[in-house]
Amino acid sequence: MYVRGVGPRVAELLKAKNILTAEDLLYHLPFRYEDRQNPRPLDELKPGETASIIAEVRGSILLRTRRAPIFELTVGQGRHALKCIWFHGSYLEGKFKAGQTVALYGKVEPSRSTSNFKMIQPQFELLPDDSADAETRLLEVGRITPVYESLGGSRLASRWLRKTIFHLLDSARGQVPECLPRQLLARLNLPDRETSLREVHFPPEGTPFSQLAGASTPSHRRLIFEELFFLELGLELKRRRLRERPGIPFATTDKVREAIREVLPFHPTAAQKRALGEIVQDMRAPSPMRRLLQGDVGSGKTIVALQAMLVALENGFQAALMAPTEILATQHYLAARKLLERSSRRPRIVLLTGSLDDDRKRQVRREINRGDAQLIIGTHALIEEKVEFDRLGLVIVDEQHRFGVLQRFKLMKKPRPDGSEDAEPDVLVMTATPIPRTLALSLYGDLDVSILDELPPGRTPIVTRRVHGEESDKVWDFVRKQATLGRQAYIVYPVIEGSKGDQPELDFSHDPDSEAGLNPAPPTPAKNLARIRKAAESLFPNAKLEASPTAKSGLRSAVEMHEKLRTGPLSGLRIGLLHGRLDADEKEIIMRRFQRGEIDVLVATTVIEVGVDVPNASIMVVEHAERFGLAQLHQLRGRVGRGAHKSYCILVTGPKISPLGEERLNAMVRTQDGFELAELDLKMRGPGEFFGTRQAGLPEFRVVNLLRDREVLEIAKVEAARFAADPTEATEAERACIRTHLKSKWQRWYGLVEAG
């Protein structure tokens, strides 16, 4: 379809934003609305409120201060004036002229100058003057005005989008195809697609602003449901197609049961029995298993996974376990060897990681290829083209969120040496990061889920305390006292040596002075990074900002503190140092020494966050705890409490803690429930950053906000399963439209249909 105002050059700019079609443009929805029907008069403003204002430009000035340039704009209505202030506002010089009309949106604050009020960093937009055509003025003032995130600087900013989308909707009147069955819309009382798009972009007069702000108008809910319905339908169809594929029907004979009983080091919990029962039931089926094993830190996932591996091994198949780091892969390898020493069969276990020398890699690959190795544990090295399995029957992926979806499928689709494509292996993915239901439904909706919600026998609750940094001496005295009793301790720091890139939590991606909107700020000079960092800490405590020499000046690092502790308050104790810059051999040597009790205190970075298991370690000290994310703090705490001794987690904080930082730390002290902490973490950080790095398998939603739209997600899942089971509610034409939507659009936007 031809779109007025979109020529070849603009089309290239839109393509860079993944907007390729007219439909894509229609789904670029407003991120907020302004009430320009009845904007607030200046004489009615109240301090603390957020208001939309339309006023006349009276004058502006750029003040060049020692710290940073400040741009001041004065606007007025009659005798009343308002001052607007932008820090680092040199880019605004010359932008405003006296007599222009400007729309402003921001928080009203008291002012000590001649004007009664001021706004700091308000959103703004210059409005057309009286000479503009009637259509332009109609879209800008006298209505509820949509405000869009720019698609390419000032050229494709909000005003251009309003005009272009208005013309697009006008020319497409009566031509927007419906993609949901009419009966479904009627049952849920949802409007049709064209009406929804029209009213979300240009809300009718009288639409409640509370509904617009919460994206809860009937039209918003319809578009949200549409997106979630197709997400869940795509996942449901993947599940159904999977059940039709040939799998391996593993037998569970008395011999298999005896092999499992031989390796159990303790009486399993009811949750472990339940999870293993669900896994084995899937493995016995003739279709491939696709299951998620989700358990909190220390809930005993590894032993359940090894028992599942034994089922495959006893049936004459190989089992492979892929871990995200060499430390974790080595940990699994050593744990498997120790457990399987009890087995009368003594299967051959091999470890394949990137750091092995070439000769050793070739030897391990030969053993895998010939079937001499039955249990294969490794990192990404397992999915290299050179690795070919003899009879791969079970794939286990640990810490699934750290792998891309395609990596999981690459291991599942490993070819056999003879080139045959027989039954697909079963797949079990594991995570120790408790996943809230909304994320589980969208990330792993194609998987069945088993949850370990009990701790194994012997796991004692961990005492968690907050301590101010000024009381560090008391912490070191406590560590020394515990060490004399034979206990071991971790001391974790957020950076290695204070340089950039050592710790994700210290990197910020958001500049508080350049919120998405109508007037993005220019790049901030490096000399102002410390100021931005300070502001960002209170607004975006888990965002990413590169550490600077100024920012790191008060930040203790692992290397620095290792030396200070070794020669100072912990002198005489055996102190080790572990961080990400060490090569794999050094890391393994240090960890083995710590496991054998040859190191009393291990100073480390978050390299020990996942998978490290030392039962005698009973103390976890986290320095600068306010700098860490909630999920990461919970993972670090889970490194202790693995033995019979009472364990402690001590969160040492710096002098300044943001409100969200306080909330995280208080939650850590209040509860050890990983699922409760995960829900709070999701609310604080949002879905995209829930795992600390961008989740490779999380769809880039165009309309949906998973935190806001949980209720709609649940409804969409039910309706998608209902439609997949019985599509006769829709007409043949509607079913064809749904199939087309899934194949041609959903695959491009979300990549869900083909990846199964």
Please tell me about this protein's structure.
42% of the residues are buried. This protein has 756 residues and is an alpha/beta fold. Mean pLDDT is 81; it is low at 402-406, 499-553 and 692-696. It has a 7-stranded parallel β-sheet, sandwiched between helices. Strands 16-21-20-17-19-18 form a 6-stranded parallel β-sheet, with helices on both faces. A 5-stranded mixed β-barrel has the order 2-3-4-6-5. The chain has 24 helices and 21 strands.
Summary keywords:
alpha/beta, 756 residues, 21 strands, single chain, 7-stranded parallel β-sheet, 6-stranded parallel β-sheet, 17% strand, 24 helices
Quaternary assembly: single chain
Question: What percentage of the residues does DSSP assign to strands (E)?
Answer: 15-25%
Low-pLDDT runs of 5+ residues are 402-406, 499-553, 692-696
Mean pLDDT: 81
Radius of gyration using CA atoms only: 30 Å
The largest sheet is:
7 strands, parallel
* Largest sheet: spatial strand order: 11-12-10-13-14-9-15
Based on Cα principal axes, name the global outline: globular
Portion of residues within helices? 25-40%
> SS-based structural class?
alpha/beta
- How far from one another are the termini? 32 Å
Give me the count of strands: 21
How many individual helices?
24
